[in-house]
Amino acid sequence: MLSETAGRLSAGINRVTEAVLALLIAALVLDVWIGVIDRYYFHWQLPWPEVLARYLMIWAALLAVAAAIARREHIGLSAVLLALPPRGRQLLLIVMDLMALALFLYVFWFGLSFAESGAKRQAMILGATLKPFYAAIPAAALLCSVQILLVMLRDQGRHLESHTQELGTDV
Fold first, then answer.
1. Entry pTM
2. Which of the residues 21, 140, 153, 161 has the least number of beta carbons within 10 Å of its own beta carbon?
3. What residues have CB less than 8 Å from 122, skipping those under 6 apart?
4. Higher model confidence: residue 3 or residue 108?
5. Is residue 129 within 8 Å of 122, Cβ to Cβ?
């Protein structure tokens, strides 16, 4: 069935995304500790830990959005949705998914030129162009688009059913 396949694919992509997130967070923690040790103990005056931490955090935060989408842990309009009849709720959830998909495709499209503009800029402290760092925007937007499409196919507007059953309301 299409919804089961989409669910398995979404879960697989999310496992990889969360593994990358774990590596990014570990690198971020290590980088910050290097900066702290440098500043307060060795006084090397390393210029790169603060800059690298910023870009690691940006990548991690943007990829975390895709992980939240896969788990349906993003902000929603639960109070409004739960007040609707089941069919209206399902329709509105699908419309919301389509709107989010359109937003992330828009961000992806315009993020490509933004990332490309990073190729012309140098992060002097890191000795590299900003393109890999700016690429976080279109990469995360594309990943979010894929996850929204997959969870939309998986849930088909019924992802609040378990929540409404817990509350004892009709679905």
1. 0.83
2. 161
3. 128, 129, 130
4. 108
5. yes
